[in-house]
Design the sequence.
């Protein structure tokens, strides 16, 4: 009885969350989804003009030239083979195409209870929302009963340490910090020692934002990773790269450089809400093959969500239309 | 930045150069390449369409078809159109209002507003000799106010105290009032990042604008921004009477299509370009130069300007005197030269502005790494003054000590000494036989000099 009750409430919660995601991705749906939906619904002839319009809708949503071409080529080929009878068939093919691209990226971050402390190193270029993502993640992990600790590894930007400390206070999570200008690798080292001593489950290490083209700064990042690995050979267990969904195709270049430098293992895509830019997620999923762990769809702590491929596609291209 | 776009266009045009004449057929192919290149550069789709259409019209006209070198003529058309699209000239800030001149900053989260406020404050103080007050009306992001306080301190401009319990309007009006009382020239108002679809937040910044009536309202946009930059720019432009745009983070490898788009939809000039993390990494935006860069023509003008601004004339004079007196160079002079280069933005920044540099292989470009210069300077710093004056005395044990002190290897010290000897020899030749003999000596080693 109790069990079925909690099942029901879990289900309600789930639908609630999905409704919120749908609401948050409304604009993406308008540019990408409804744009496509409209194109494919109004009984238009399936011809080159329509394909051009679909192409434009994809490009406008930052899907990128290459991934767009892939989707369009598939449609064109099917059209030639006379596999597509009407617009709704094209819609289904396209939806399947999107799903095929994002599904491999839908692998959530699972923190094994045996690994302690589990070390997450967070990297990215300037202004993508690393510190905010860390704050939200810490808050969620704490709420799920984990002992969390933060390391203020952004010792470069003015007041970055203070920003993380505010998040620490808000969420009641300890923050290991030194002064601005301190050696970030040393902060990481201290934090690892402290985390081990204080029986912490998850340690999240912030780093300064840096342009991926500055090799000196990328070397510094490599050093932080090396120092972490020196303390614990298996760490960092996750190198989470934060990308701004508002970024265009440069997101791919960022990812490539950071991957080469510190072996990124997962992605958090922030600022996905409210605007028309969800498409870069497709380009990232297609080109990188890396798991997209989280998407950020709003200011609230709960708006940092685990990425679920099907849910995402449902939110922008509803199944039953 | 813009590397890949210029690369693509160049590849396209190289193919076009092969053909003798421009035909309907190869024109269509070329324009398609231009379109793809612009799309990959994140130029907004409607802007690309308009751009390609204009190029097509002009290219179909007499100037290209009757040209003996249609490829060149088409490049010129694309160049002209790019310049046109990005605005015809660099617009300086309008500070002619009754002091204090108020400048309001607006933009999305993470665009780089706070950093830009500090950089511009520094620029106004050092170049234009203005007294500057900065204030933060960002009551949302944790420690945002603290960040501006620290930056203000670093760039030595005045900071207006505010806290998250105040309202943005209250902070902004308070800052302007304080500047008026202190008779300061300029007030820069930083605001919280906001989504352009967030009505409440857009109303908030409208209220701030109405309360302080700024003479400049600058929209700060990330040069890495994608297709949505157009929507954001449009929304901010509709909500606020923008007077200009600042394009940030242009030191990465973003193709910078946002610059073209934002300019196109707002019609407002791009006034500055943020090019690095250092407080002085803010440059005036020159559309001709950026268009040149896109087309691989190099940006020699900013290079010359940069040299004029950063070269330490006293040191140059000192060095000239020394050489005239027949004294040789020493390692301190060598170090001065390197530091000079670094002040000009470092090797990579110099290289980026040189014509044809983007045709160097990527690996070679990456070699032009400023850490090399840093290492050389570190080695020289680890020498005694005596050693710097008389590098000849640096033998085995001294080399080991210097290598240890600078965190390098003995081979690195050797390499430095060898480079120095080469430079010394060149200077000697210069003294003895003048420039001609030196060039004769270099002939064959450098392309283009024979």
Sequence:
């Amino acid at each position: 009885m109790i069990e079925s009750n909690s099942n029901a409430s879990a289900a309600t919660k789930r639908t609630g969350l999905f409704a919120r995601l749908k609401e948050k991705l409304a604009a993406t749906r308008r540019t990408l989804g409804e744009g496509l939906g409209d194109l494919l619904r109004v009984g238009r002839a399936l011809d080159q003009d329509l394909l051009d319009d679909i192409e434009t809708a994809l490009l406008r949503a930052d899907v990128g030239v290459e991934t767009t071409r892939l989707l369009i080529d598939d449609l064109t080929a099917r059209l030639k083979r006379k596999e597509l009878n009407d617009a709704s068939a094209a819609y289904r093919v396209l939806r399947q195409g999107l799903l095929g691209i994002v599904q491999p990226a839908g692998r959530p971050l699972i923190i094994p209870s045996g690994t302690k402390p589990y070390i997450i190193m967070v990297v990215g270029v300037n202004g993508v929302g690393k510190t905010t993502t860390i704050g939200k993640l810490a808050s969620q992990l704490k709420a799920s009963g984990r002992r969390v600790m933060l390391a203020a590894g952004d010792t470069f930007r003015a007041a970055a340490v203070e920003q993380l400390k505010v998040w620490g206070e808000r969420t009641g999570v300890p923050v290991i910090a030194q002064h601005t200008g301190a050696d970030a690798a040393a902060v990481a080292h201290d934090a690892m020692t402290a985390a081990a001593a204080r029986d912490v489950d998850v340690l999240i290490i912030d780093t300064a934002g840096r342009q991926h083209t500055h090799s000196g700064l990328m070397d510094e990042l490599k050093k932080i990773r090396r120092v972490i690995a020196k303390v614990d050979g298996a760490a960092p267990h996750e190198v989470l790269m934060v990308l701004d969904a508002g970024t265009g195709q440069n997101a791919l270049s960022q990812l490539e450089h950071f991957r080469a430098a510190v072996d990124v293992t997962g992605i958090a895509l922030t600022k996905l809400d409210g605007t028309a830019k969800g498409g870069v997620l497709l380009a990232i999923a297609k080109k990188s093959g890396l798991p997209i762990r989280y998407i950020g769809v709003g200011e609230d702590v709960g708006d940092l969500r685990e990425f679920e491929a099907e849910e995402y596609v449902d939110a922008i291209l509803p199944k039953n239309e | 930045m813009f590397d890949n776009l210029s690369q693509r266009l160049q590849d396209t045009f190289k193919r076009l150069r092969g053909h003798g004449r421009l035909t309907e057929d190869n024109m269509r192919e070329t324009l398609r390449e231009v379109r793809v290149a612009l799309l990959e550069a994140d130029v907004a789709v409607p802007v690309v369409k308009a751009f390609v259409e204009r190029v097509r019209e002009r290219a179909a006209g007499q100037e290209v078809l009757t040209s003996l070198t249609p490829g060149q003529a088409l490049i010129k058309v694309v160049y002209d159109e790019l310049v046109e699209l990005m605005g015809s000239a660099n617009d300086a800030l309008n500070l002619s209002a009754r002091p204090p001149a108020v400048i309001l900053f607006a933009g999305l989260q993470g665009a780089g507003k706070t950093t830009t406020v500090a950089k511009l404050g520094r620029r106004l103080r050092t170049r234009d000799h203005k007294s500057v007050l900065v204030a933060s009306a960002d009551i949302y992001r944790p420690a945002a106010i603290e960040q501006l306080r620290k930056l203000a301190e670093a760039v030595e401009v005045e900071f207006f105290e505010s806290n998250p319990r105040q309202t943005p309007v209250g902070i902004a009006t308070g800052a302007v009032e304080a500047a008026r009382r202190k008779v300061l020239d300029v007030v820069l108002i930083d605001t919280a990042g906001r989504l352009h679809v967030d009505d409440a937040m857009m109303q908030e910044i409208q209220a701030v604008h109405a309360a302080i009536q700024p003479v400049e309202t600058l929209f700060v946009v990330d040069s890495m921004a994608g297709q949505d930059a157009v929507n954001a720019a449009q929304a901010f432009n509709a909500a606020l009477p923008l007077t200009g745009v600042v394009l940030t983070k242009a030191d990465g490898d973003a193709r910078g299509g946002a610059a073209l788009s934002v300019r196109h939809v707002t019609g407002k000039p791009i006034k500055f370009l943020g090019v690095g993390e250092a407080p002085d990494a803010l440059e005036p935006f020159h559309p001709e130069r950026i268009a040149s860069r896109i087309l691989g023509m190099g940006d020699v003008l900013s290079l010359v300007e940069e040299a004029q601004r950063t070269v330490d004339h006293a040191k140059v004079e000192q060095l000239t005197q020394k050489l005239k007196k027949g004294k040789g160079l020493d390692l301190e002079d060598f170090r001065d030269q390197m530091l000079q280069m670094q002040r000009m933005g470092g090797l990579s920044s110099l290289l980026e502005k040189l014509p044809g540099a983007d045709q160097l292989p990527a690996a070679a470009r990456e070699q032009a790494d400023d850490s090399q210069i840093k290492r050389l300077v570190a080695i020289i710093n680890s020498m005694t003054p005596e050693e710097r004056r008389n590098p000849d005395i640096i033998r085995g044990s001294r080399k080991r000590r210097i290598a240890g002190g600078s965190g390098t290897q003995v081979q690195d010290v050797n390499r430095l000494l060898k480079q120095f000897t080469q430079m010394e020899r060149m200077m000697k030749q210069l003294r003895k036989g003048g420039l001609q003999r030196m060039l004769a000596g270099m002939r064959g080693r450098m392309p283009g000099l024979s």
